[in-house]
Every structure is written in structure tokens, then in C-alpha cells.
Amino acid sequence: MELWNSTLESGFILVGILNGSSSPELLCAIVTSLYMLALTSNGLLLLVITVDVRLHVPMYLLLRQLSLIDLLFTSVVTPKAVMDFLLRDNTISFGGCALQMALALMLGSAEDLLLAFMAYDRYVAICHPLNYMLFMSPTVCWLIVSTSWILASLTAVGHTVYTMHFPFCKVSEIRHLLCEILPLLKLSCVDTSQYELMVYVTGVTFLLLPLSAIVTSYTLILSTVMHMPSNEGKKKALVTCLSHLMVVGMFYGAATFMYVLPSSLHSAKQDNIISMFYTIVTPALNPLIYSLRNKEVIGALRRVLGRYILSAQPTL
């Protein structure tokens, strides 16, 4: 098949989940609603944690980073998918595709690492409470955040540059919600099997190793919680950990399917659904899972909103 110089042509065509749906208008409305929910909930959580000094502790500083990542992650994908459907224009330039891939990889990898560090934070808080501020000092906290962003950025840039250097065929249709490595490699006119193996190894490293650390942390946490004399303490610890595990299950389950399972088990429809789950659904649900059953966050939200309502009232 004749090679196609992507840099000189109009780019790619993204055929996402909205175009292949039996009820695209309804699905578009659901996706838009989830995006607005993600913007609102993550934005409020960012505001509350930033404004309320009582939440300036490592647990909530890491949660603020998670909300920031989720807000950016869904914004990289959702507005483009919705506008493409509404305008009936699914094209994306070569540079735009590379940028979307790099940002999605960076934010997804950063969230992957951050969730593991949040599990470590809960382990220290519950199993070593007296040494919590030693093991999770502000310096350690910012080191954790910086490490997540740096490793994620290096991985994203490396994979994006290498993926986009392949020659692509004249068939420029990407049957996927966004520009990701594996769907894009299907358009290449050369053998990419060795690079797909590299992607697989990276996926295992970035997903299964942090997941192993999370499982170990929560195993130790569960053992500690079961020996707590106070039922109230047990309940509080279990509720906090359960919310984290729900987020972990949603994110790692979808990402593992996408990047760890062999490509022979994938289909375009399945990949679209999985990608929608971790780029649109999960960012909308994460802040709700973390905040709805968290009395400290609810209390801080009431204080912040009450403060803004009082300041907005006209003085007599």
C-alpha cells in the first residue's frame, strides 16, 4: 500500500464511539453531561482544598492533584469528541493528534502513579500514625507529586515521538475515541510488532507495579484496621480506603484492558468503550466518590460556599 506523508496531508479522521453508536444523540448528551459533572465536581474540589487551610494536609494535597489531573484528562478528549459530532467534522491534524496523544499519556500515567502514592499515604496514616508527618512531610509530598509528573511526562514524550515517526498508509481513519498508541499503529505500513512489545512492557511496568504496591498497602492497612479497638476508628478507616479502592478499580481495570491485554483480544468497539470509561466516566465520578462520604470535605465545602454567599450579599 502506498505510504502517506502525514505531515503534508490534512491529518487523521477520528471515528469515535459517538459515530458508531445506535443512538448517537443520546450518547452525546450523556457524554456532555458527564463532562460538565467532571468540570463542576473537580473544580469545586480544587477550590475547597485550596481555600480551606484545614485541608492543607498531605492526603488532600494529593487529592487536589488527582482532581487537577482528572479535569485536564477529560478536557483533552471530551470537548473534541463532542464538537466533532456536532459539527460533523472528525478530522484532526498530525500535530493535533500528536499533542492529544502526549497529553493523554502524560495525564493517564501521572494518575496511575499518583494513585499508588495515595495508597502509600493511607498506609502511613493508618499503620504508622505517630510518624505520619515524618514520612509524609510537605517536602515528601511535593517530591511525590513531582516524581509522578516527571516520569509521566518523559514516558509520554518518548512514546509519542516514537509512535509518530512511523510511516502511515493512505487510510487515515483512526477507529478510536482519541489518538492513542495502539489504534494509531494499526495505520502503519511497516512492521510495528517490536514497538508494540515495548508498549506492552511499559504498560505492565506503569500499571502492574503500582497496582502491586496498592494491593500490598491495603493488605497491611486491612490487617491493622482489624486490630483497632475502636469500632468508630475501624469504620472511618474502612470508608476512606474503600473510596480509594473504588477509584483504583475503575482506573486500573480499564487501563489494564487497554495496555496489558494482548492486541488479539481487542476490538475497535471494546477499545472505544474502555477509553470512554477512563477518560470521561472516571474523571466525573472520582471527586464524588472521594467527597460524598468524607465529612471533612463536605464541611469545608459548606464553609467555603457560605463564605462566598455572605460576601456576595449587599451590605445595608
How many strands? Answer: 5
Number of helices: 10
Strands of the widest sheet, in order across it, are: 3-2-5
Radius of gyration over C-alpha positions, nearest whole angstrom: 21 Å
Distance between the amino and carboxyl termini:
77 Å
- Describe the largest sheet: 3 strands, mixed
Topology order in helix (H) and strand (E) letters: EEHHEHHHEEHHHHH
Helix content: over 70%
Low-confidence segments: none
Mean pLDDT: 83
Describe this structure in words.
The protein has helices spanning 24-51, 58-87, 94-127, 132-135, 138-164, 181-185, 193-226, 231-259, 268-291, 295-312, and strands spanning 3-4, 12-14, 91-92, 168-169, 173-174. It is built from ten helices and five strands; from the N terminus they run E-E-H-H-E-H-H-H-E-E-H-H-H-H-H. Helix 3 (94-127) packs antiparallel against helix 8. The model has no long low-confidence stretch (mean pLDDT 83).
Layout of strands and helices, then pairs:
Blueprint: E1 3-4, E2 12-14, H1 24-51, H2 58-87, E3 91-92, H3 94-127, H4 132-135, H5 138-164, E4 168-169, E5 173-174, H6 181-185, H7 193-226, H8 231-259, H9 268-291, H10 295-312
Parallel strand pairs: 2-5
Antiparallel strand pairs: 1-4, 2-3
Helix pairs in contact: 1-2, 1-9, 1-10, 2-3, 2-9, 3-5, 3-7, 3-8, 7-8, 8-9
Briefly characterize the structure.
It is built from ten helices and five strands, in the order ββααβαααββααααα. The chain has 316 residues and is mainly α. It has a three-stranded mixed sheet. It has a two-stranded antiparallel ribbon with strand order 1-4.
List keywords for this structure.
10 helices, globular, mainly alpha, three-stranded mixed beta sheet, 316 residues, 5 strands, two-stranded antiparallel ribbon
